[in-house]
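STRUCTURE:
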């Protein structure tokens, strides 16, 4: 991270030397390439993603939530501001690589925090591939991503689970929360009519309009890898139960520390699709 910060400063100095001012909107091509690479590493995009899963695995869920959402706001805002001067080939390559790594890397994971890390990499890849063509869609994708990721992290904190093997106990303890979590996972996978379908639909439509059919087809096929482990998590959460004795089938439910924020974020991550057009007008 320190090296990346130094690279950002170095890019700023190159830009200042070229234009004689510190305005980020006047970014030149020679300075925009190292700046884009530095910001991509800050965001944890492939192939500069190696720090993200390991760091997220080693921190508590609350810190993981901050790393996956709040920490990405500043780099993403910088990336959107320099979107018109970024290199199209660079952003497309990093975007496709991130979708591939985000799907492939999460398949064999058993730790939920690592799965969320690879999920983050995949979603950011979708944002980056459309950045040059339509920054408004990137901003919309990022907003939906924050809602869905926050919903899942808050749910995991409420249930106090960090492994796939632990989420099988979710249904007996809190059936309503399990249903919401299941729908949030499917929303992360991009299935209609949930909120996560809107970013993928709008990104695919824009790529099609720009005649980037190969890029659109590639990321759609690669996103099936991520959809596989989302469905696996959904199956584990809703259709399996932890081993119980016959005498203990009626589950003793401990009182969970429920928060209105958990319900609100889960609701937004599921039902925001009808408001897509209104949100895009505001953006």
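SEQUENCE:
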């Amino acid at each position: 991270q320190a090296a990346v910060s130094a690279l950002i400063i170095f890019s700023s100095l190159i830009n200042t030397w070229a234009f004689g001012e510190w305005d980020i909107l006047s970014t030149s091509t020679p300075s925009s390439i190292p700046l884009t690479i530095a910001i991509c590493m800050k965001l944890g995009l492939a192939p500069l993603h190696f720090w993200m899963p390991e760091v997220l695995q080693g921190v508590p869920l609350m810190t993981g939530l901050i790393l996956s959402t709040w920490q990405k706001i500043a780099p993403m805002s910088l990336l959107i501001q320099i979107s018109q001067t970024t290199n199209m080939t660079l952003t497309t390559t990093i975007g496709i690589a991130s979708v591939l790594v985000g799907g492939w890397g999460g398949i064999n994971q058993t730790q939920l925090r690592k799965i969320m890390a690879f999920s983050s990499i995949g979603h950011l890849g979708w944002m980056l591939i459309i950045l040059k063509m339509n920054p408004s869609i990137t901003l919309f994708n990022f907003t939906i991503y924050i809602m869905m990721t926050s919903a899942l992290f808050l749910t995991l904190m409420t249930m106090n689970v960090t492994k796939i093997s632990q989420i099988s106990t979710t249904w007996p303890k809190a059936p309503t929360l399990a249903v919401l979590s299941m729908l949030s996972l499917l929303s992360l996978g991009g299935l209609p009519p949930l909120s996560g379908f809107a970013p993928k639909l709008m990104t695919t439509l824009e790529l099609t309009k720009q005649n980037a059919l190969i890029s659109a087809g590639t990321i759609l096929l690669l996103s099936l890898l991520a959809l596989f482990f989302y469905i696996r998590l959904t199956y584990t959460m809703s259709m399996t139960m932890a081993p119980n004795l016959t005498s203990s089938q009626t589950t003793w439910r401990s009182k969970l520390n429920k928060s209105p924020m958990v319900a609100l974020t889960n609701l937004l991550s599921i039902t925001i699709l009808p408001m897509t057009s209104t949100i895009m007008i505001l953006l």
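REMARK: Residues 52-242+257-282 form one domain.
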